[in-house]
Amino acid sequence: MCLGVPAKVIEIRDAVQHVALVDIGGVRREVDVSCVVDPDQGMDALMDKWVLVHVGFAMSVIDEEEAARTLAILEELGEVQEALDDIRQTEQMLGGVG
Amino acid sequence: MDIVRDFRDGAQAQKIARAIGELVKQVPDSHRRPLQFMEVCGGHTHSIFRYGLNQLLPDEIEFVHGPGCPVCVLPMGVVDDCVSMAERDNVIFTTFGDAMRVPGSEKSLLQAKADGADVRMVYSPLDALKLAQQNPDKEVVFFGLGFETTMPSTALTVQKAAQMGINNFSLFCNHITIIPTIKAMLDSPDMQLDGFIGPGHVSMIIGTRPYRFIAEDYKRPLVVAGFEPLDIMQSVYMLVKQLVEGRAEIENQYNRIVPEAGNRHALMAINDVFELRPYFEWRGLGSIDHSGVQMREKYAQWDAEKKFDLPRRKIADPDAAQCGEVVKGVLKPHQCKLFGTACTPETPIGALMVSSEGACAAYYNYGSVQIPVSEVTRSRTI
Ligand code: SF4
To answer: Ligand 1, atom 6: nearest CA belongs to which residue?
Structure first.
């Protein structure tokens, strides 16, 4: 119930009632976007954006830059670990030889 | 970028697990082993089991499954109240799927439906509102439950009902709030927690600031986490790092979804429609002060508690069921005497066995089989 699904905004249906059509993995559904409309920018700014949908309401605009940043941190963490693994393996091997 | 695929990379998860394994050795000896991290949210419990993350992590780290499965902490008396409304002739009773199978003292909503009551599963509270419009001669009740994640959706639906003058719609409000719940966990003498995996989607609404007391007053770290396997692994890494460096801070791993200030519009709707209850009764945990909300007087017309005369009885769980201990993390699900014998997902005795976010169901479905993360990545079944 608390998980929510990422969906892409493909059409603005009702700018007054804040209803938009989204695509959720190929399924289309109208959702309420009142929680993610920026009053300064209006509904159109949501077009083609990815939003997280919970029980019929878009609750957050997914920040793709932040997602990329998180992935980059993970990548780096993984790379450091890989390098460490390599160093250790080499040490073991050399230790074995010596 | 394919966010779902990228955050499920099995090889990457194994690397992070090894990095955690090395880091955890540097945690000061003053911490008892294994380290106990509570994931407050049932969504995290589900992911941890679904992807076998507990098997991937070093033995020095243990997850304590928190009370964050809203269906699982529903007292039986509340289910009885639902059934009593659903069984009235002029009522269409609506709710989310998970809530249908929770056992009441006599029956679940699903059984009430089989016996002829008009109970319908809806995807959104807005669907219930639509039903009310289509059936003006019926009373449509929506059973709303969940933490702050689902609270805005019911609040906005009630506002809409008021705006449009749809008076044959009402909300049976059983929403619960996260902060008093975490505080109760921290104050419980049974629990020795080293840190928290913070709920991702609750935080998307309330932001990260309300957690500050956990770091400041209780000196425990909390990392708000996403729900993909790599999100959780990274959050564990961040928690261990804080312990190594002797810090207790509120950090946000899930900033692609969670803004520090939360969602202003959603919070305004919540505040407009709901107010704190003096206390709320939890299944297994007893009564926790200010842990639930009720509808404000100005929305009394749409409040099922005011519209209907409800039994409101307190019903104790069957003696052999140990749901309370499991919710508190004192017992692991399989240590309950009924686990897998009298209590299974097909014949649930406690609600923890009903919801896919419940610890017992997660243990039952995934506990014995270890699914390598890499295979899950390939099949992408969620
Ligand atoms: S196995 Fe069933 S009875 Fe035992 S704790 Fe889990 S849900 Fe409750």
So the answer is: B360
- Enter the DSSP assignment of B176: B
Amino acid at B279: Y
- pLDDT above 80 (res B191): no
Separation in Å, CA of A96 to nearest CA in chain B? 23
Tell me the chain A residues in contact with residue B253 when contact means C-beta distances shorter than 8 Å.
70
Decide if A59 contacts A69 (C-beta within 8 A): no
B6 reaches A (C-beta below 8 A): yes
Residues B278 and B341 both lie in one domain: no
Instruction: List the residue whose alpha carbon is closest to atom 3 of ligand 1.
Output: B321
Nearest-by-Cβ selection for B156 from A34, A78, A81:
A34
**Residue B379, both tokens:** 């099949």
**B179 within domain boundaries:** yes
Looking at ligand 1, which residue's alpha carbon is closest to its atom 7? B350
Contact between residue B330 and residue B198 where contact means Cβ atoms under 8 Å apart: no
Compute the distance between CA of residue A42 and CA of residue A55 in angstroms, rounded to an integer: 23
| Pairwise CB contact (< 8 Å): A55 & B202 | no
Contacts of A70 in chain B (CB under 8 A): 231, 234, 253, 255-256
What mean pLDDT is predicted for residues B210-230? 96
Query: Range of B157's domain?
Result: 32-307
Q: Which amino acid is at B193?
A: L
Residues B337 and B228 in one domain: no
Instruction: Write the CATH number for B296.
Output: 3.40.50.11740
Q: Which residue has the tokens 């997660």?
A: B362
User: Residue B329 pLDDT > 90, yes or no?
Assistant: no
**pLDDT digits 0-9 by tens, B17-46:** 999 999 999 999 888 889 999 998 888 998
Tokens of A54: 């919970």
**For residue B207, how far is its CA from the centre of ligand 1 (angstroms)?**
33
Q: Which residues of B touch A85 (CB under 8 A)?
A: 18
- Cα nearest neighbour of B226 on chain A: A3
The atom of ligand 1 lying closest to the CA of B352 is 7
B303, B334: one domain: no
Ligand 1, residues B73, B334, B338: which to mutate, most atoms within 8 A of Cβ? B338
Whether domain A5-94 has CATH 2.30.30.140:
yes
Reduced to 3 states (helix: H, G, I; strand: E, B; else coil), residue B328 is coil
Complex confidence, ipTM: 0.85
pTM: 0.89
- Domains in chain B: how many in total? 2
The residue-averaged pLDDT of B231-259 equals: 96
Of B249, B274, B307, the one marking the end of a domain is: B307
Domain boundaries, chain A: 5-94
Tell me how far apart the alpha carbons of residues B361 and B344 are, in angstroms, rounded to a whole number.
8
Q: Tokens in use for B285?
A: 């945990």
